[in-house]
């Protein structure tokens, strides 16, 4: 477990929304004292996946950065690294990602450092009071023993879990609230607020409760 730092900031599903991400980071201004946890789904659906990855690569030099592995990173890497059939990825927003890299038939257009960055995602991250996963969890199973399908693919619409046996609060993404509001039920908070669909990208400081939101028009709200 990493040492707690001044701020512990989770960022919800970015999905290629570079304007929202840049606006949010300009407002939050992460420093080397901060831990910033990206909850996954950096890529797909929105228009600027490549630019979003570039911004997060730069962010790694500004703070203690943690990437959680999302289901969209999983789909992309299955195609890019394992030459799997691309149909599932294409169906779920992969076309916009390929377009952002200028794809014209050769996957080598995706830079090696981008692939390595996406491969570096963790299944989960935890602090003394919180744990961070992309999508969901089994409340009766230790974090190290969770099923990856549950962590990355299970929606809160399918199953909303109870409190985890660790006693820690869960911070998740993956299940978008199309109203742009945060879903918080005490033991669990979901901060996927549907940025790619026209709502908000959310960052939440889980230590002091500060919330920042930005959209693809460059607007901010607290």
Can you give a write-up of this model?
Helix 3 packs across helix 4. The chain has a single domain (7-221), classed as Metallo-dependent phosphatases (Purple Acid Phosphatase, chain A, domain 2). A hairpin with a 3-residue loop joins strand 7 (183-184) and strand 8. It has helices spanning 18-28, 49-59, 71-82, 87-100, 112-119, 148-153, and strands at 7-11, 34-38, 64-67, 125-126, 130-132, 169-172, 183-184, 188-190, 201-205, 211-214, 220-221. It is globular. The protein is built from six helices and eleven strands. Strands 3-2-1-9-10-11 form a six-stranded mixed sheet, covered by helices on one side. The protein has a five-stranded mixed sheet with strand order 4-5-6-8-7, with no helix packed on it. The longest helix has 14 residues, at 87-100. Helix content is 28%, strand content 18%. It has 222 residues and is α/β, with parallel strands linked by helices.
């Amino acid at each position: 477990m990493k040492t707690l730092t001044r701020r512990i900031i989770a960022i919800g599903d970015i999905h290629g929304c570079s304007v929202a991400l840049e606006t949010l980071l300009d407002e939050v201004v992460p420093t080397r004292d901060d831990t910033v946890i990206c909850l996954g789904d950096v890529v797909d659906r929105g228009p600027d996946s490549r630019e979003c990855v570039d911004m997060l690569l730069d962010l790694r030099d500004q703070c203690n950065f943690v990437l959680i592995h999302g289901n969209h990173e999983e789909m992309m890497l299955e195609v890019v690294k394992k030459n799997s059939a691309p149909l599932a990825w294409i169906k779920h927003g992969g076309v916009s990602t390929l377009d952002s890299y200028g794809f014209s038939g050769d996957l080598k257009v995706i830079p090696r450092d981008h692939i390595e960055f996406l491969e570096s995602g963790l299944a989960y991250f935890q602090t003394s009071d919180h744990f961070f996963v992309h999508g969901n969890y089994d409340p009766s199973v230790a974090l190290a023993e969770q099923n990856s399908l549950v962590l990355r693919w299970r929606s809160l619409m399918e199953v909303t879990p109870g409190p985890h046996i660790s006693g820690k609060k869960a911070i998740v993404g993956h299940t978008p609230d199309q109203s742009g509001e945060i879903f918080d039920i005490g033991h669990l908070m979901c901060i996927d607020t549907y940025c790619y669909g026209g709502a908000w990208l959310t960052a939440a400081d889980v230590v002091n409760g500060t919330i920042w939101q930005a959209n693809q028009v460059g607007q901010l709200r607290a």
